Every structure is written in structure tokens, then in C-alpha cells.
Amino acid sequence: MSKATFTLEFEKPIQILRDQLEDLRKSSVESKMDVAAEIQAIEEKITETKKRIHAELTPWQKVQLARHPQRPYSLDYIRQLFEDFQELHGDRQFRDDRAIVGGTALFDGRPVMVIGQQKGRSTRENLARNFGCPNPEGYRKALRLMKMAEKFGMPVFCLIDTPGAYPGVGAEERHVAEAIAVNIREMSNLRVPIIATVIGEGGSGGALGIAVADRVLILQNAYYSVISPEGCAAILWKDRSHSARAAEALKITADKLLELGIVDEIVDEPLGGAHTDPEVTGETLRTVLKRHLDEVLGLGESKMIDARYEKFRRMGVYQNA
């Protein structure tokens, strides 16, 4: 995957410094002057500026990072972390939904099933993958693969990255809500380990349809929410311009989700976001996935299912001090 070229609004001070650095390097070559000290000073300023900006990101700015067009997608992680990936297609009822990809693979030498929501890089690919918004057949395909994994004793890895399930007429006619509900029910009792990771956007039931897992992880700049900030703003304030306010109120960032017990661990990203160094992000994720898989496998089937049940029953329970 190519290096990021898209610049978010809050990243512009960093980009200005990078442009200055590039100009200085070009001029030093042309003039044959030694400007090593000046180059080092700008490089240090870039690092300091990145640290300052990313230490003060608002929830809305983190949502923008989660949607960054150069951010690694499911297939990027699958290619890096898994060997011998064999994609499987179709739900055996209606058609293949390209917004969800899945198939068998090897992880650390172990046969596994990996399932992910996939966006497109270009307009054509986004149209083919429905901008990462699955139809009901996508969830039914995912469940078919999970049941296959259960039959052969393969752990399941789910990579979550969707604004939400597709809300179109066809999806409603084919019962998208029912498809998600069945997945939630069946994943609750699946007799193999399930590790889910929110790698970008985790939107509403569209995310939850493949996120009932023994471990739910989240990348540092990803988000996980019952509704998009824009959707929340449109409902509460009748105006999408309040999206930043909604993002703050929804508590959708990784730190808040960990505090509330919705996720089990935050996976660190390189300074600037996963898109600045996808290889490092992937290797960090590999280490975390392996550790959690080993822990879940160590529980045994009965304790694993009981712990999964208790994990989700604890969510949303509060006691007065």
C-alpha cells in the first residue's frame, strides 16, 4: 500500500513543515550547501508537532482518522498477518457480498477462519464493495464461514471496518436486521475462539454483526459506536453540522470504550495513525492477536463460552457509589 498523500485539516501544520523540509533538501542539492543542521531542526519540529497534535485529538478528529482513505483495510491486514488465505464466496442463498471478505488461512501456523469488512480504494471498487456497508447476504456469508470454522475446530478472527449495515430497500426486503440478530445469537454460542478487532469504523449493528467475540480489540484511532456521529447529530439536533458535538457525547473513542468495558485492549498505532506505517501497525496487531488467542484457547470450550456470555452481560451495568 502506498504512503499516505491525503491530508486532514488538523494535519496541515505537519504538512507545511514537510513541504519546507522537502524544499530545503532540494535547494541543498542544487546549491551544494551543507544544511544538515537546518534539516535536523525541521525534522525535530515535525516530530514535536505530530506529538502535540495527536496528544490533543478530539473525538471527531479521531473519527476522521478512522476514515482516512489511506488507512489499512481488512485485506491489507489479511495479506500481512495470515498465510495461505483462501477466500470463500457466497451465502448459499442469494449472492456474494463483497463488502465482507472471508476465508481459511494460517495464523502462526494454525488453521483459522478470517472474516473482515472491506471498503474500496477507488470509486469503482467502493461501488463494488458498497463502501464497506454489508447487505444481509454478507452477514449470512460470515455466519456460514463461522459455522464451517466451528465444524473443523478453527479459531475465528473478525476485522471490523464499516459505517454500518446497508440501509437500502433491498437489504430491508431481505431482512438485514434478522441476519444481524441471528449472527449475534449464533456467535454467542460458537464453540471456537472468536477474536474481533475494530480496525477503522465500527458502526452500529453493522459492526456488531461480526463482533460478538471472546475478545474485542480496537486500534488506537478507530471508533466503535451505536450510531455514526452524523446520524446522531441529525436525530438529536436535526443538523449534521453538530457531528463533532455528537462524537464527544457518544464516548466512541478507544480510551472511553476501554474505560466502559466495551473493548478489552487498545492496539497502539504509530504516531500519526496506522496509515503512516501500515507494516508496524500490522506487526503490533499480530503480537496482540496471538496473545489473546493463546489466552482464550487456554480456557477450554465450556469456560470460554461462559466467559463470553458474562462479558456481554456486564456491559451497561452501573452501580451507584
Compact summary:
The chain contains 14 helices and eight strands. By secondary structure, it is α/β, with parallel strands linked by helices. The protein folds into two domains: 9-56; 63-313, 2-enoyl-CoA Hydratase, Chain A, domain 1, CATH 3.90.226.
Spatial extent as radius of gyration: 21 Å
- Mean pLDDT comes to 93
- Just give the CATH class of the largest domain: Alpha Beta
For the sheet with most strands, the description reads:
8 strands, mixed
Structural class: alpha/beta
What share of residues are in beta strands?
15-25%
The third-level CATH topology of the largest domain is: 2-enoyl-CoA Hydratase, Chain A, domain 1
CATH homologous superfamily designation of the largest domain: 2-enoyl-CoA Hydratase, Chain A, domain 1
Q: Count the domains.
A: 2
How many helices does DSSP assign? 14
Give the SSE order as H and E letters: HHHHEEEHHEHHEHEEHHHEHH
Helix amount, in percent?
A: 40-55%
Number of strands: 8
